[in-house]
């Protein structure tokens, strides 16, 4: 079968062999659990508990505070010890609810009970997903209940299940595809019920042949769900890239996928939807990858949300003595961290540990106008010209050159022989343009 893909892109070292054959292992919660109120795109959630309150596992501790927002739930039973500023993955200090785990595992009523999903209406399914705190678990964190209930829901003809997991080293979604494919398919069917005129396409990269075979077997004879073979290439899992690969439709920064009749949902998100709709469980845990050459035991762990990155690493056997760099997420779009005292949140993909830091060793030199950044950019912009506009603080020109189309995938920086931090400069340019637009 011909493998579909998008134009341009790169082929970085995958590193997936370190952990892709490691079955998912569940770990217990920590003594102290920390829940940032902002774990999604949109308005932060609003705390509905107070210091001293006893909470139950599966209890909502912060409610959504706006149309684009999502509630937060406790993964443990215990006592609220503080509501205070804590360090989070962005490097900022943000409001967090701190819970001391009593390890009693007392749950809210009905938690984990089977639900007859077939008897639920479209509106009931959407409402359950919204109230369960589910957001895009592929990294973006957009509230899923909002995503699957666009104004033109009847016009959506394609539901794309993003099973690309193109980010190097990460294998958590792959393990879910191997071990929880039945549940993922049920989650897909729940979303299809909310989108009555849509058919689902499961997009999987060709380096995940076992997952392709399993999903083709599970969906054989289903005229509403099919499997699409995708070429292994980065950033194949980008929303715009996978839409183009599967449908040939082009999306830009001023559009939503729904404007082109598409909705994109990540594989892990589908699993969370299954748990919410079929098992009456809000989003309180997720599977993450702990890997890298400096990790003692690369693995995929099913973790309660709210644990620290330090606790996460400890449960992977810790790191080797020669570790020099830690990244939360993948090497292309993740965030380098200097502290492990930050909580695992809904959008956390994992943690990588390396014994060398290629970025720190880079010595930037002048642009030689080789055009490599242009040849790989999936958004067909000219990164070196965008960087030049940012350096000149000419953000109007940055915007006019299409800078807002940058998806910050890192492909340009990866191939730049002059080691210019093109992605970081584009990120700064986009932030400045947003500031300008907000003032106007």
What attributes does this structure have?
six-stranded mixed β-sheet; 440 residues; single chain; four-stranded antiparallel β-sheet; alpha/beta; 13 helices
What does this protein structure show overall?
With 440 residues, this protein is α/β, with parallel strands linked by helices. The protein has 13 helices and 17 strands. The protein has a 6-stranded mixed sheet with strand order 1-14-13-17-15-16. It has a 4-stranded antiparallel sheet with strand order 2-8-7-4, with no helix packed on it. Strand 7 (78-87) and strand 8 form a beta hairpin. The protein is globular. The N and C termini lie far apart (50 Å). The model has no long low-confidence stretch (mean pLDDT 96).
């Amino acid at each position: 079968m011909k493998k579909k893909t998008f134009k341009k892109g790169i082929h970085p070292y995958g590193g997936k062999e370190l952990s892709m054959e490691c079955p998912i292992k569940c770990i217990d919660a920590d003594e102290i659990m920390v829940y940032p109120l902002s774990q999604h795109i949109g308005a932060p959630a609003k705390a509905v508990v107070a210091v001293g309150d006893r909470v139950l596992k599966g209890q909502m501790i912060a409610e959504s505070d706006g149309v684009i927002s999502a509630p937060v739930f406790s993964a443990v039973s215990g006592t609220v010890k503080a509501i205070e500023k804590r360090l989070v993955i962005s490097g900022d200090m943000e409001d967090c609810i701190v819970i001391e785990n009593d390890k009693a595992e007392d749950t809210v009523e009905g938690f984990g009970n089977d639900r007859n999903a077939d008897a639920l209406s479209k509106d009931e399914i959407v409402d359950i997903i919204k109230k369960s705190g589910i957001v895009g678990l592929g990294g973006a964190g957009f509230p899923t209940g909002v995503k699957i209930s666009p104004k033109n829901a009847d016009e959506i003809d394609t539901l794309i299940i993003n099973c690309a997991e193109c980010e190097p080293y990460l294998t958590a979604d792959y393990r879910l595809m191997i071990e929880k494919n039945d549940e993922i398919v049920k989650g897909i069917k729940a979303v299809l019920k909310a989108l009555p005129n849509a058919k689902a396409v499961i997009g999987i990269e060709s380096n995940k042949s076992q997952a392709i075979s399993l999903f083709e077997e599970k969906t054989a004879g289903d005229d509403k769900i099919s499997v699409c073979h995708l070429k292994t290439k980065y950033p194949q899992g980008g929303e715009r890239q996978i839409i183009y690969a599967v449908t040939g439709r082009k999306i830009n920064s001023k559009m939503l996928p729904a404007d082109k009749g598409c909705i994109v949902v990540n594989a892990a998100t589908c699993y969370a939807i299954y748990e919410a709709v079929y098992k009456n469980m809000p989003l309180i845990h997720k599977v993450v990858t702990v890997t890298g050459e400096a990790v003692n035991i690369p693995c995929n762990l099913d973790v309660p949300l709210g644990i620290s990155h330090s606790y996460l690493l400890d449960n992977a056997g810790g790191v080797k003595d020669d570790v020099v760099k830690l990244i939360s997420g993948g090497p292309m779009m993740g965030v380098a961290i200097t502290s492990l005292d930050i909580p695992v949140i809904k959008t956390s993909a994992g943690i990588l540990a390396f014994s060398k830091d290629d970025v720190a060793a880079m010595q930037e030199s002048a642009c030689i106008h080789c055009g490599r950044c242009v040849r790989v950019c999936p958004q067909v912009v000219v990164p070196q010209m965008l960087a030049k506009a940012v350096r000149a603080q000419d953000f109007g020109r940055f915007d006019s050159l299409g800078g807002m189309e940058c998806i910050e995938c890192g492909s340009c920086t990866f191939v730049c022989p002059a080691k210019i931090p093109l992605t970081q400069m584009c990120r700064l340019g986009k932030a400045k343009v947003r500031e300008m637009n907000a003032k106007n």
